[in-house]
Amino acid sequence: MEGFTWPRRQDFNRFLRARKIKQRFIARPFQQCYIDLQFQGNTMAEISAPEFSGKRIALGVSGGIAAYKAAEVLRGLQRAGCLVRVAMTRRACEFIQPLTFRALSGSHVIVDDYAPDNPDPIAHITFSQTADLLVVAPATANLIAKFATGLADDFLSSTYLASTAPVLIAPAMNTSMWKHAATQRNVATLRADGVHIIDPDEGEMACGTIGPGRLSDPERIVKAALEILRNAAAPRGQDLTGEHFLITAGATREQIDPVRFLSNRSSGRMGFAIAEAARTRGADVTVVAGITSVEAPAGISLIKTESAEEMYEAVRDNISTATVFVGAAAVADYRPAQIEKNKIKKSQRSLVLNLERTTDILESVAATRRDGLLVIGFAAETENLVQNALQKLTQKKLDLVVANDVSRADAGFDSLNNSILMVPRDTKAPVELPLMSKAQAAHHLLDEVVRLRSLAKTSTAAQQKQAR
Ligand code: CTP
């Protein structure tokens, strides 16, 4: 083979040492190697638990320079107790041989549904529908585009479409390809479809460029996969039955004159996502919406308002039957002290608007709450996220504050996704969640509601026992 040289043993050993991988046994060099990779330290031992034993993972490998790292992902999942089967794209086979994955997984590696050596005649259906989780690492820009548009022209993309299991993908590509508007659009579509995505790491790429695009650390991919399995194993079901949520959503609009107003960029998506998630988990839901640019979910009561004052009145009228209040609206803090009857003419060189404070709806609900009402607020911040969130938690006497950085272009206001940080009143320990769809973020918020509710029940039971 012209230009081909076998890698020297010492180079391979250096590579393994640099990645902190212990080498147990290498039978033949690279092309036909049986490798047993072991993560050093006890990180993997910590996450290996009986709950993952026998979980079936479909691992998809697409064609990028990082394809070899999929072997580390496979071994990490196996160490946690999972059974892993591998599917590869044709291009992936040019970077690493199927034999490597066959040896490591102990199973046939599927590249082509229609290959005569494929033991299963309709493999993409059996493969996808018998898996508890589909992990794709690395996922190339091409594969992401196929997933986002629903193209199913090879085994891996057909498997994705046929799968009803949760999906985790770890993109890896050249920095410009990752940053390209088309890729970002496709990634946003997948997130909105509920796909979990581990953003690539920043660093020096194989092509020499420096920036985001490198496959995330295999250990992080394994941890994320196990976290998804853990969440899926604890189905949320109807765990909010009996609760009545009152949620504010969207932006308020403060009139200046008959044609102008003060408002903000809130779309109402986050509030509606919480409403929809709570409804699917069995709660009764009322949403007091300001101005919104998206459809409200079905199956909830919707009260439409415009100004902060109208929103406040609607909340006041409905709070007595609520058991959980969520202030997800972006409420104006100030409104014009007086609304001009006629359109303001541009007769002056400059114009000063006199503004006055609106009522803080959230603070007022928390200050006048009955026993048992959980009060949850948001903190829209552009700096000092944790500090400001903690301040709002204590100042407004909340049970939970959900902070988001509204200066991010890929999350928060008017975005399909959110990257939230939650601080509950009992621990005051910030829990930071990665970028995810607003629907997924809503479920995490509701998980906290369930936890806070069970805390309250435990402490009431303890008090009653003491009183007896
Ligand atoms: N909020 C409210 N009524 C207001 C202002 C805010 O109910 N008049 C609620 C929001 O719905 C959110 C929380 O208070 O749940 C925090 O809103 P945010 O805009 O982040 O902060 P503010 O309290 O307005 O303080 P600041 O603007 O100084 O950060």
Question: What can you see in these coordinates?
Answer:
The strands form seven sheets. This protein has an eight-stranded mixed β-sheet with strand order 14-13-10-15-18-19-21-22, sandwiched between helices. The protein has 468 residues and is of the alpha/beta class. It is built from 16 helices and 23 strands. The longest helix has 30 residues, at 438-467. α3 links the parallel β3 and β4.
Strand order of the largest sheet: 14-13-10-15-18-19-21-22
Gyration radius over CA: 26 Å
The SS-based structural class is: alpha/beta
- State which percent range the strand residues make up: 15-25%
Please tell me the overall pLDDT. 87
The major pleated sheet works out as: 8 strands, mixed
Low-confidence runs of at least 5 consecutive residues: 1-7, 23-46
- Based on CA inertia axes, which overall geometry fits? globular
The number of helical segments is 16
User: Helix coverage percent of residues?
Assistant: 25-40%
Distance between the termini: 86 Å
Beta-strand segment tally = 23
Q: Any ligands, ions or cofactors bound here, and which?
A: cytidine-5'-triphosphate
